[in-house]
Structures are given as C-alpha cells and as structure tokens.
Design goal:
The protein is α+β, with helices and mostly antiparallel strands and 185 residues long. It is built from 5 helices and 6 strands. Strand 1 and strand 2 form a beta hairpin.
C-alpha cells in the first residue's frame, strides 16, 4: 500500500511538473482596437493608427515625416519590434524619447534585454550614423536622461529578448527528474 501511495504521489508530481511549462507560458496578443473618438484623446489612442476620414476601417499611412492631429499636436510614426507588449507601427508625439516610445508600446516584456536596444534610422545623422545601440538599463538604474536619443520619424526600435532560461521550465525539468527517479526505485 505504501509503495502504491508513493507511485501515486510521484505520478501526480510528474503530471504537475509537465503542466508547469504549459500553464506558465502566456501568449501575448494585442488588445482589440477601441473606437477612436476625436473628442476624447487618450494616451492609448496616440499609439494607434489614425483612421481615414471616409469612415472606413482602413488606417491611414502618413508619408510625410511629421503630421498633425485635430488638436494641432505634431506627430510622427515609429516602428517597434521585439520584446514589448505591443509591436508594430506607432504614432507618437514629436520629440518622444526611447522610454516614451517603449511606454506607448505597452512597456518592455518580462523577457526584454534592455542592455542591447537597437535604433535604426531611415536617414543618417550629421555623422553619417544610421544605427544606434542603447543600454536602457543604465537609464533605469540611474535616471540619467543624457544618453537617451530623441526619436525621429520612421525610426525602428528593436528590443531583443534576453537569453535567460525560464525558472518555471527549470523547476518542471527538476520535478520530472525527481518523479522518474522515485518511480524507478
């Protein structure tokens, strides 16, 4: 009876351990678009594409580097790729810096590597530079904004994922190993 209880406990531990990676993994999906009401500006509406004036569901693509909204705010488009909550093209205010753009994109994901953020420019700067590597972790620790770049129209921000191993996966592997060991005894 004792051996049967031990095997039952090990089987339950094994079943739980195998379920850890499945239940701890979450899929990120962009929330549905809210209707954009031009009378009620919100921080979220600034991150969404602007609707066409014809009342259709299409979104407008601005070819000019800067454009204005109905309130006269100067806006520009930037692209965000990688480890943020929402990726893709964003409409942001002129003069936005990197933390602002990442915030509009919903913030960095838990797997974001803030030490190796890449900003690719469409047009080279005065020195001919088109790519910048930014260590945003320095800003997070110190609050020093001097190393932050102002974004330019059509910049692409690429936030890589860190190469760390998920602790839930490690615990699942250990639990499976312990279960197999106890079952084989």
């Amino acid at each position: 009876m004792r051996q049967a209880m031990k095997r039952f406990g090990s089987a339950m531990l094994l079943a739980h351990a195998m379920a850890i990676p499945v239940t701890s993994t979450s899929l990120l999906a962009a929330p549905p678009f809210d209707s954009l009401d031009s009378r009620t500006p919100t921080a979220r509406s600034a991150a969404m594409p602007l609707p066409l004036n014809n009342g259709g569901n299409e979104t407008s693509i601005h070819t000019a580097p800067y454009f204005t909204d109905s309130y006269g705010n100067i806006l520009m488009n930037v692209n965000v790729w990688g480890a943020t909550q929402h990726t893709g093209p964003l409409t942001v205010p002129e003069g936005s810096d990197l933390p602002t753009v990442i915030s509009i994109a919903g913030g960095p994901s838990k797997d974001a590597n803030l030490e190796k953020i890449r900003i690719n420019r469409v047009q080279p700067d005065n020195d001919g530079k088109m790519t910048y590597l930014v260590n945003l972790k320095t800003y997070v620790k110190s609050g020093d904004r001097s190393m932050l770049l102002d974004m330019q129209p059509n910049d692409t921000v690429i936030i890589p994922e860190s190469k760390s191993i998920d602790p839930g996966l490690i615990l699942g592997i250990i639990a499976v190993g312990a279960s197999i060991y106890s079952l084989s005894r």
